[in-house]
Amino acid sequence: MKTYSAKPTDIKRKLHVIDAADKTLGRLSIQIARLLMGKHKPIYTPSQDTGDFVVVINAEKVRVTGKKTEQKVYYRHSNYPGGLKSITLGNLMQQFPTRAIEYAVKGMLPHTRLGARMNRKLKVYAGPEYPNMPKPKAETKKTKKSK
After folding, report:
1. Around 17, how many Cα atoms within 13 Å sit in the side-chain half-sphere?
2. Collapsed DSSP state (helix, strand, coil) of residue 140
């Protein structure tokens, strides 16, 4: 039996819009990472980017369980002496509501150039609207022609 490898012509990308309102951060991030990697498709190939585009809306309404808002801390360093900065999840959600989802999903993707390409297909928005959102169709009334 031969191993299947996806070709660029076989890859068809869809757009998935996910509403993050009242969803748990970790479980939502797993779902998003699977869509970005393409693991939900039968043509999934680990060495290829077979994933879809994902748009997450209502990121400010995502939930976390337990005391994570006070206890979970994100660190970054400026590479200068004394340059270690830290921020709790609660403060991060107040200042930058989209970054909590972005950081969680980035940690679940491969830490390679392929993972960086997958991460570029993710767009996160704090509110319910996003650019290029489909417009609701206006109802048109059909009138009868008189003879």
Report:
1. 11
2. coil
CATH number, span 15-64+97-124: 3.90.1180.10
What are the pLDDT digits (tens) for 61-78? 999 999 999 999 999 999
pTM, whole model, 2 decimals? 0.86
Residue 102: closest CA among 75, 131, 68, 125: 125
| Residues facing 54 on adjacent strands | 16, 122
| Domain segments of the chain as ranges | 15-64+97-124
Cβ–Cβ under 8 Å, residues 52 and 89: no
Amino acid making up residue 6? A
d(CA 19, CA 30): 14
